[in-house]
């Protein structure tokens, strides 16, 4: 699930009275993978919901984040409340394994195969 979809689903659940149920679901899943962390900054109440979820999962179940940001830039994801960001990131980093993948983007334009170039 992307960061945007995650906090959006919590926000939508709050609006329809299902926040507690959705929060418990996300808090208990064995491995939560949050894609595109930091692609967009989080504002209240999304930043608070994200923090609460990470705090609830902390040292209980596994959480994995993917991001194009360096650790030093992760604080920028919480522009409205830097202290909340620090607390959240401390929980995420504690005991974490860091994998750095380098290489060309698989979305980068690629040359057409020779057979397709000649067909045009």
UniProtKB/TrEMBL annotation:
InterPro entries reported for this sequence: IstB_ATP-bd, P-loop_NTPase
Annotated Gene3D superfamilies: P-loop containing nucleotide triphosphate hydrolases (3.40.50.300)
Organism name: Acidithiobacillus ferridurans
A Pfam family hit: IstB_IS21
Highest taxon, organism lineage: Bacteria
Domain IstB-like ATP-binding: 3-108
Gene Ontology terms for molecular function: ATP binding
Protein name: ATP-binding protein
Record keywords, A-Z: ATP-binding, Nucleotide-binding
